Amino acid sequence: VKLLDDLDRPDTDRELTVRILNARLFATFSDIDRYPAVAVEAEGLPALTGATPAECQLLAHLARIRLGAGGTAAEVVELAERAAPPAALEDADAGPGWFVAVIIALTAADRYDPAEHLAERAIDRAKASGALSHYVWATTHRARIAWLRGKLDEAEGLARSALEAGESVREWWRLSPVMVLIETLLDQGRVEDAASAWTATGLGETVPRQRPLTPLLQARARLRLEQGDPQAALGDLSEITERLGSLASENFNGLVPRLR
Q: What pTM was estimated for this model as a whole?
């Protein structure tokens, strides 16, 4: 990240500037403390059309940044749609850093059909290429869409599939499907199964300070509420608020309003 921040680049080379911003955003995404500063720099870039794969990737980042900053649904969707022309998924660099951002932006604005279509295409592409991380991320978000649509059995099956696929991965992000799984189980009234799903993560009380894992605190808070421990649930709420700062309340898809 430090090397990317210090990299000397000519202001006249727009494509290089876009590619370096993409690399910096991707490198800092899990870092709750460093990502916002890079996001501000990215938003200061002149309007992007999505003319190149690199521009599509940056537009995806910008859609998620605008979502986090409290932009309107129309603003977020406009960026997400510009980031996702039909051929974009065929680009060699179209990994989770691109399609996850687009899916999150679309689902936040209740655009479930295009989000689901993109997730399914990403799953098919991951299977064809053998890209494990792509499969885990795409399946996790396909599960989340099913959950949001009330298709609980389907959401549970997809979440478990994503977890099983990620068993050989050492990085913490492999646990992201747990959020969907716990929410889905709680919606079915299966509190003990949800508790078992949390225990299986091995996280215990401490959730690593990584952005992709912050939603796990939301799932655990809801689980604790269902278990009759509102104080512990409020403790998780406080930690979410501290991690996300003002974004926790400003974001129209924010965790805190949903948890309250």
A: 0.82
Distance, C-alpha 180 to centroid of its chain: 12
Task: Indicate if the alpha-carbon torsion angle 246, 248, 251, 252 is positive or negative.
Answer: negative
CA distances 232 to 63, 73, 92, Å, are: 33, 32, 44
**What distances in angstroms separate CA 177 from CA 26, 59, 94, 243, one per listed residue?**
20, 25, 21, 20
How many whole angstroms separate alpha carbon 183 and alpha carbon 12?
Answer: 48
Cα gap 243→122, rounded to integer Å: 30
Let me know: does 160 contact 181? Beta carbons within 8 Å: yes
CA 133/CA 144 separation, integer angstroms = 17
| Amino acid found at 57 | Q
Cα atoms in the 13 Å half-sphere on the side-chain side of 11: 2
The pLDDT of residue 81 is above 60: yes
**Residues 88, 53 contacting (CB under 8 angstroms):** yes
Residue 30 has a pLDDT of: 66
* Nearest alpha-carbon partner for 65 in 95, 94, 22: 22
